[in-house]
Amino acid sequence: MVEKVEQLSRVKEIAFMGKVAASLSHEIKNTLAIINESVGLMGDLLGKDAPGDWPPYSRFTNLLASIEEQVQRSADIVKRLNQFAHSMDKSLAELDLNEKVRKTVMLAQRFATLRRVNLETQLASEPLHLLSDPFRLLYVIFGLIERAINSSPKDAEVKVKTERSGERLQVTVTDQGTFEAGKIRALVSASPSPEAEQGEADLALLAQTIEALGGTIAAEQEDGGLNKVVLSFPASMPII
Amino acid sequence: MAEYRVLLVDDEEEFVSALSERLMLRGIEVDSALNGEEALASLKEKEFEVVILDVMMPGLGGLEVLRQIKSTYPNTQVILLTGHGSTREGIEGMRLGAFDYLIKPVDIEEMLEKMKEAAKTARTG
What we know:
heterodimer; A: alpha+beta; 5-stranded mixed sheet; 7 strands; globular; B: 125 residues; 47% helix
């Protein structure tokens, strides 16, 4: 009973975080819209009233174009923030695993760029319907990608692939990192320990969440030293 | 003579002011309202082919304003402004009869194109 109340409370806390983040992202969109229209109006007025031979004319128009470009870039970032926030709306929803992985990879892209790791995606051509907790699913996929990024050398590639395998849907994360498959196997079957190093404890916790989501995790080492971590969930029929 | 009349409804005053001026520079007749109540009052006084309507406004929300516009002025075409395209409000708005929706920040050329199509629909019914 106490455990159920704690679980419910956790779900409510996550939903609250999502609600606030979604609301803030909406406010940012409004300020970006104001900047966009103000810059657009400056461009319109400049084009209408300024003489073409006015020396700073082209510098001004270039600067306005640069602001417009950055407004669009910020709008794309805020869109990702909004999608992330809405992943906390419901604790159970029908999803397309391809779409989930695509959005998660977009969120992880900056982490990869900072470590100079190339993040590649290979998505199944058909939709992969899955009934799951959107936020916790994002958390585990992101966690596995982050682990792969953090253990990879500079300029290495981390590949994220989705596919159907019979009645199961899989996400495979392949890396050339130092965190070997044997160690991953041992950690995901161990209980989370406070004495474990940060990365090791995180992996054991991820494995627990994957199990709670009804999934499994397996790790193997391919020829050439590639580590392959496979996350697998039972497929669900689309809800019509 | 302007090709069509537009009512721009958004609670962000600076947004309304800058966008109205941009549309007027392009020869479009624009009136503006900063909330839903003001928008409905303007519609009572004047005929508009197109209403550009923000979904998220304090007080009378965009979807309620849309509902009232479509029941009283069925020929007036409403283009919704949303922060994010996949929000429930945007989808619900389309179900309620909105002509289309645009995501903020708006691309002016895309907006002009949609307004032109909406005005044509408003005239032909």
